[in-house]
């Protein structure tokens, strides 16, 4: 087998050549199976099959625009929620909340993901039909983002969630994919092997600490370029966080909009309860694999207590302490009363 190091792709190749080279590269990558799903290791991160080709090709082929808005996240940290919020904030002059496209289109279709939607097979698609400013999402770590994003002034919003709730959310999500049915919100213990894999950095888009720390560090160095948000803060005080988000995106709420209650309206439109109960979010499979319902499970802070054993909590807390030591980043695993 050829070594991944000896294979390169470049923008001048024709489509067929490009896809062949990507395929060769993918076949030469370290590969392991997690819950029946193969994961490929590329530049230190494990990627699922529906993202690996897109990661490799978008690094070279994605052309960022200065006005692009990028939502980045580790999976299960609130990506769906932020897609809905960013779309609603940016497009509020085109669509009032009561006529929002979110009522009939899934958040993931309104804000597609660079690696698993636009570049899924290695070739760019559906980029020309996007309205300005373009909004993209990605789970790639900062270090692996397309060069043109890092070289541009486009704004990146990173949403982060405490690792205890994230691993639980991911466990339900993977189970629902494997079983291809609805994720259960019922208490049940997480599988030991799944948990161990997460802690050793072997899950889709893991290690989670690299993903989070990469964006955290850039948000400190370049706060005008990366806004770091927490799922828990959004749950605690959505109006305050929405104002912060809108200002960062370059679409601040005016005093008049605030007085009219527009922030609350957007918050309600994008709330877990509202989105989960919309017909469009209750049917179908995404990427021919993921039940749409799996994106809306419970939407709570602190649900880990129902699914992790005390010893798992201790292990994960220790790991977090070790990996995030000195970073200044603090996770919240319950809301203030
Ligand atoms: P739970 O599994 O804990 O319920 P992502 O969108 O990154 O895949 O994250 C999915 C998690 O966010 C799931 O968490 C899901 O229920 C929750 N979620 C989805 N939409 C939400 C919303 N509008 N508000 C709050 N949480 C939401």
Automatic annotation (TrEMBL):
Protein keywords: Transferase
Single GO MF annotation: sulfotransferase activity
Enzyme Commission no: 2.8.2.-
Annotated ranges, domain Sulfotransferase: 67-328
Organism: Rhamnella rubrinervis
SUPFAM superfamilies found in the cross-reference section: P-loop containing nucleoside triphosphate hydrolases
InterPro entries: P-loop_NTPase, Sulfotransferase_dom
Pfam family, one: Sulfotransfer_1
Protein name: Sulfotransferase
Upper taxonomic lineage: Eukaryota, Viridiplantae, Streptophyta, Embryophyta, Tracheophyta
Family in the record: Belongs to the sulfotransferase 1 family.
Enzyme class: transferase
